[in-house]
Amino acid sequence: MDIHTDHPRRKSLASRQKIVDAQAAGMLADSALIAHGRGEAFDYLLGEKTIDSARQSQREAVNRLFSAQEPVISMNGNSTILAGKNAVRLAALTGSKLEVNIFYRTEKRMNLLLEKMKFMKDEVMASRPPKRFTVVEWKQLVSQVEILGAHQDSLIPGLEGPRARCCSGGIFQSDVILVPLEDGDRCQALISMSKQVIVVDLNPLSRTSRFATVTIVDEVARAFSTMTDMAVEGKGDPDMDWDNQSVLESALNAIGNSAHRISELDD
Ligand code: ATP
Ligand code: MG
To answer: Most buried of the four, 22, 141, 187, 244, by CB within 10 Å?
Structure first.
């Protein structure tokens, strides 16, 4: 589909098209389109931009990944399609493992997504390195990123069925996990395993947003792009007094203010 270069909502339409194409290619479950649509609605209300409190959560997320013993970035179908390459970059910079982990697992979809992720890793290896890295250093760093998901040999306690499955060397043993677009009860189960759970979710009211240790209320592609830039700048210390509730309140205020602006237009 051609989207005109001066279309005001070009980025949003391009993302929608990526999801539609990936679904047609068999990489996503049908419900992926519905989840994306809900995200679009919240993003519209947030003005399709990164709000200040989300930027603070992104910095906190990067600091926690850097400080972790076993950092893992868990990617589902939508986040792989929308943010896969920056997930590889972020994993390389912070020393995290990547695990492809989908709710409605079929071997076919899993294989397609793992293939896609490996392809993206090769693309990132061949891409221009971020500042401060030579081409050789960057290649070496990216080549070390492990992509897990093919052999799920552990279960997340407290969950029924295939959604409990994960890799022992990845999600299961992680101490800090960045899991964009997580489901509420899985987020809760990961918290019960004493992990620090960092989520990306445009809905500040979702159970995922409310249960997480650090919530990034932002669109997943924008969130990973900013976190990658932040990781290039270097490490910082995690905030031991992190107030996640205030992050959710700021996002709700931003949404409320946008509803207020719209009602003013009607006057
Ligand atoms: P929960 O299980 O946490 O209560 P839910 O069941 O309401 O949430 P799900 O269908 O599990 O929601 O997941 C979709 C979530 O992902 C929605 O909250 C939606 O706002 C969010 N989302 C969808 N696309 C994006 C995106 N591109 N970037 C960020 N968030 C997104
Ligand atoms: Mg859910």
So the answer is: 187
- pLDDT tens per residue, range 90-138: 999 999 999 999 988 899 999 999 999 999 999 999 999 999 999 999 9
Among all ligands shown, which has an atom nearest to the Cα of 209? 1
Non-local (6+) Cβ contacts of 79 within 8 A are 87, 180, 181, 200, 220
Cβ-count burial of 16 within 10 angstroms (0-12 exposed, 13-18 middle, 19+ buried)?
A: middle
Residue 34 corresponds to which tokens in the numbers above?
Answer: 């519905």
Q: Ligand 1, atom 8: nearest CA belongs to which residue?
A: 206
Over residues 71-91, the pLDDT tens digits come to 999 999 999 999 999 999 999
Whole-number Å distance, alpha carbon 180 to ligand 1 midpoint, is 9
Structural domain spans, the chain = 52-262
Q: 181 CB under 6 A from ligand 1?
A: yes
Give the orientation angle of helix 31-45 with respect to helix 10-24, to 10 degrees: 170
In this prediction the pTM is 0.95
- Ligand 1 center–CA 141 separation, angstroms: 32
Q: Whose CA is nearest to atom 22 of ligand 1?
A: 39
Query: What residues pack around ion ligand 2 (CB closer than 5 A)?
Result: 183-184
The bound ligand whose nearest atom lies closest to the alpha carbon of 212 is 1
Q: Cα of 214 to ligand 2 centre, how many Å?
A: 18
Residue closest via CA to ligand 1's atom 16 equals 181
- What is the rounded CA–CA span in Å between residue 144 and residue 95? 9
Query: Closest Cα partner for 166 from 189, 143, 144?
Result: 189
Rounded to whole angstroms, how far apart are CA atoms 20 and 174? 32
- Angle at which helices 31-45 and 77-94 pack, to 10 degrees? 70
Q: Beta partners for 196? A: 176
